[in-house]
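As agreed, record minuted below.
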Amino acid sequence: MTTLQSDDCQSNDPNNFFPMAIESLRFPLDSTMRIIFTGYYNGFNVEVRSSEEMAMLHHMGCFGKGSLSRSKPKVSQNDNSPCLLRKRQFLKRNYWQKKFSKSKESESDSFFKDIDELTAKILKDSARNNKKDVIDLVSSDEDEVSDTCEELTIPSNLSMLDTYDKQDLVVIAPDSDSEGDNYFANFKPKCCLNKIKIPEKLMLTLCEAFFLSYGLGCLQILNSDEKILSTDQCWDLFLETDKKFIPKYVVYHYFRSKGYIVKSGVKFGGDYLLYKEAPGITHSGYIVVIKDEQESLDWISLLGHIRMATTTLKEVLIAEVIKADTNLADVPDNLSAYSVREIELSRKMPVLINEDD
């Protein structure tokens, strides 16, 4: 994260009518003060890796989604406590560590492997697995914890635990799919070394990333070679990834400019959800359905959207994207030629009122 700030940074209001102290404002007060975040394009979306940038982006606009959480990224705090994992999670991570940490053999060596030996091993493993059911396959991994876990006895090795970072330790809890009382009676966790670390990242959609980069100018996007992409390069790359990127971004930019928090609406059958406040504070009020000029909505899909919105106490908002001049090229400089027309749909329920004479 890069911060550019001049010494003569001052308020844009000449009358100084701010209801709070200038020092307490978090946002830039003029163009000479900027905060530049860094995002990495991974082929599907843009990820932010710094914990400080993750917290700021989500706090100042609810941008993105945590890769290991439902919405808000859970940034680890320095509480000197290791993470807690189920035994099956620990075994799976150690399987990944063994699989991807092995040195890759050259292609010439792989061609000269003994085919008979490989065939015999495959037949032996398949015959052994066919005799087992699901429960046997799960229980056969019981002994793998002792093989893959460098167990540390907590009462006798407290001084040894102090030498490790909390992120290097993991507490393994036994697996249990039942809710019986015997689980906690025989609860014997183990403290082991964590060989696989999966840090949480803030995942930005293509529209969110381009809005932060092009609309606000506070995000620089890097490719796999860690080279900064220009606005035109991001536009071409995102358009190649998502063919409907242009109408999606036009609608996203439109509602963001009106002060709404825009989130994905796939869960409710739409394109976006509009929030007046943070999603953790209030529910969304509108389900946005994007309509391009070249597309047409049939009655069946419209009634489906209305029925979904009615059952979830929301309203359907059709966002029709209109391009003023169809001959203009699809480049970021021509985004001003697009406009959005809002069409609000509602379901009217007739009410029969019986009046007694």
Q: What stands out?
A: The domain at 243-357 is CATH 3.40.1350.10 (Trna Endonuclease; Chain: A, domain 1).
